[in-house]
Sequence to fold (198 residues):
Amino acid sequence: MPDQTTKPHVHRAIILELKRIEESALYSGESQFEQAKLWRGINLMLGAPAAALAAIAGATALASTSGRLAAGIIALVAAGLGAVATTLNAPHRSKESQDSGNAYLALLSDCRITRTIELPTSSDAGAQAALATLRSQQDAINRKATPPSFYAYWRAKRNIERGRQTYEVDRKETHPSAHVANREGSEHPSPRRNDPCA
Fold:
């Protein structure tokens, strides 16, 4: 039980604030994971055709002298696609979104553990200090994270509403601490990891 320096209304207020942080981290993290998938798709859509066209241009040029004009045009298109891919730097952007998603996932877990395990036996001062630490953690992640696209947010919201990010043990619970899967490491037990069809 909480010690004698606790006040029930203070703990209730802290619990509500922790739930708000959890909900925000849930949606933000899932949006970042969806944005990472989007950047990976863009990289494939630009990189694969550029490589294929470059190979076709080389083969066409070597096949005959009459094919040099066509080879030149194909090479220009391939170079253009390559330039766009370089400018967008999709692999780097994908990694940034992935890292931000994992940071939100860590924040979500920290909030849940604080709320369900540590808070019931904490004093008001200890609970307020824990909340302040988590708020600072959230602010730091928000400052570093790149805002996701509307499409990424839409997919994230759909996934959450369909329960795709909820552990089986949490399906009977009513609190909002559903978990976002870590898309990068398969060693993490999670409901859905790196699912390209989701």
Q: What stands out?
A: The mean pLDDT is 76. The chain has one domain: 8-170.
